[in-house]
Structure formats: C-alpha cells, structure tokens
Design goal:
It is a single chain. By secondary structure, the protein is mainly beta. The chain has three helices and 21 strands. It has an 18-stranded antiparallel barrel. It has a two-stranded antiparallel ribbon with strand order 6-7.
Length: 439
Amino acid sequence: MHKKTLPLAVALATLSLGAQAAGFVEDSKASLSLRNFYYNNDNRDGAAKPSKQEEWGQGFIFNYASGFTQGTVGFGVDAIGLLGIRLDSGKGTAYNATNSATGGAVFPSESDGRAVDEFSHVGVTGKMKISKTVAQIGTLMPKLPVVQYNDGRLLPQTFEGGQITSNEIDNVTLVGGKLEHAKGRNSSNNDSLSIAGSNGRTGQRSNAFYYAGADYKITKDLTLQYYYGNLDDFYKQHFFGLTHVLNLPAGNLKSDLRYFNSDSDGKNASAEGRLAGYRASGYQNSGEVDNRTWSAKFTYTLGAHALSAGYQRVNGTSDFPFLNQGDGSSSYLITDVQIGKFQRAGERTWLAQYQYDFASLGIPGLTMNTTYLKGANINAPGSDRTEWERDISLAYVIPDGTLKGLGLAWRNAIYRSEAVNQRDQDENRLIVSYTIPFM
C-alpha cells in the first residue's frame, strides 16, 4: 500500500469496525477554529529582498477527535482540515519569489511568484488504544523537547508519521515515534525533513526522524525529562530537563532547566556527506553538527504579576540543530521568540520577561507580556557579534456573553543583529480568533 494512503485506510477500517460502538461517538469532539491573521514585517538596513512583507488572510481549522471503540483493543480516528484564504498579499509585499524555496511568510506561491488565492489540506490519523497506551499513525502535531510543530502563522505546521504514548506507569509518560514528512505552515505539500544549513535548494533531506523519551512527575511540583531525537544522516540529540515549582509565603518560584547534547549522524559525520549537502549551519564547523546547549529560566509569580530571568549558552562549533524545513519552525529553547531563536554557535543570551493579568484590575481576559533578549559572543568572521530582540504582546479573550471566547491579539517585535546575512526587523502581527465547538 502506498504510504500516503495508509492513514486514510486505517481511518476507514476504524470507522467500519466501530463507528456505532459505544465510546467512539459519545466521546467524540469536533470544533472549527477561525483565525484572521495580518502580518507586517519591515526588513531594515540592507538592500537584499524583501524590504517589506505584508500579508493578510483568513484561516479555518477543523478538528475532529473520536473516542475509542469498546473492548480490550479500542480503535478511533482523528482528522484535521486546514484552509487559508488570501485577503491581501501583493507580489511586492509577499515576496513569493519564483526562486524561493519556501514561498512567502504566510502563503505559498503561484508559478509567477504571486501569493495563491487559497491553500488547503486534510490530515487523518488512525489510533489504537490498549489499556493506557495509545498508538497513532498519520498526521501528527508533536510538542516535545526534541520536536515541536510551529503555529506562528495563519495555519499550523503538521507532520506525517507514527507515535506511541504510554501512561501504564503511575506519574510516568513514555513517548516514542518516527516522523517522515512535514507540511509547512504556508504549504499544502509534504516535504522531507531537514535542518538549517541543508534546507535550501542545494541541500539534502531525510525521511526518518526517530524520537523517544519520558516525563517523570516525581511530585506535583517536580518533573524530570529525558528525550532522544535522531534525524537520520544529520544529527543525534539527547535532552535532559527539570521543572520545579517552589511555593513561597508570598507567590511561587518556577525553575526550568534544560540541556541538549547534539552530535553528527551518518552522512553529516563524513566530509563526503557534508560536501554532498548534508550540512548544519554554523561558522568554521565545516557543516558538521557539534553542539551543546544549556539554559536556566526562573519565574517568580505573585498575584497578577510574573517576572522571569533566564540565561542560555550555546557551546560547540555548529548552531543548535532542530527540525527546520526552511518554511517556519519551532525549537524547545527558552530563547525561541517572535523573530529570533538566539541559537547560533557560541552565543550567550540573557533573557528578561514580565507578564501581567489585568483580571486583578477588573478586566478579566486581558493579558500583557513583554520580553527582552540580548545575545553576545556569536561566532562570526572578524569578531564576536551580538543581537537583541524586544517583544510585546497584548491579548484579550472575551470571558462571557454572546461573543465568549473571541480572541484579539497584537504582537510587536523589534530585532537587531550583527550576525552575518541577517537583516534588522520590525514586525507586527494582528490576530482575531474564535473557536466554534460542534460536539
């Protein structure tokens, strides 16, 4: 059977086995999320295109999750339908250039480089449950330390593969899986997997990302994590994490400690393989993955206020590696913010963040967040270089009444960098969102 039709076959088999069985329908959930997204990015200082990006669209995200059929082995099916409609996006401001590997910031490209009128795709996931263990195959949206789907534009990124999640042991969650393709947030096509340094037109890709890990909740306030990720022919990565909440006489202090150890794998480990395009980004590293990144973030919360301070250090000759097809990606770094990720080889980054919940002033649903990051010691030609970013977000979700759940958000970011081939940016995003539950 062709691998692209396997999830659909599983889904049809699931329906035929137990569509009428108790639990399958009764525990089903369905919703339609509406997202109106406006994006404006001003690329400053430099002549390289584009100098300005401006796109506006309406997104529709339909989610369906069935329950499981009765019996020792339960079967079910999940589905997601995604549709993005262009409201405004000229060729000059979208810059969906014909030689671009990734289209514009929000929409894919037509053959002449213009943004498409609309793009869509459907994902189906078959699932099976035995006791407290669930196996899935088809469309996945993992959110784990070694792989994170991106949801920073009109429609979310999705992956294709299989995953098993087990909670048989009390207070322990075990996860393992394999991913073969990714569908970008501005694409209707499945692409093979890659990393920065190889995700351009001349780079190579892989159809196998293996991952496994465990979350161990020692107490209600202390969790330990270990995860392993391997993108075949690119890199192997070990992750160790600890989160702890300390309750104080006034407020509480949350500690978040993370450590990644990443090395080359397969063709990336050889000079011949790197010459063929299996390369990682970084300076003076010959394209080989060699990275150790650790971070610590502490958040003190008191009433409506939350104040955070963090530090991250990137050691090794390569940049921090993570799945990145070049069309929008996310990483599990404390420095992965609106524009930058601060993951360059040698980089040392300080972070400060303040959050406020206006419910304490009688305005429930209104929140504010501001973050500042300063990275230094970037390995680059000539001298060490720096970069910084300041983000502000203001969000309001109507708490009750006829429009309960309607969300309004404004996100503003200013980014300045001395990194090679990196332009300064001023960016704004306006988002209106609303979810309609059906069952």
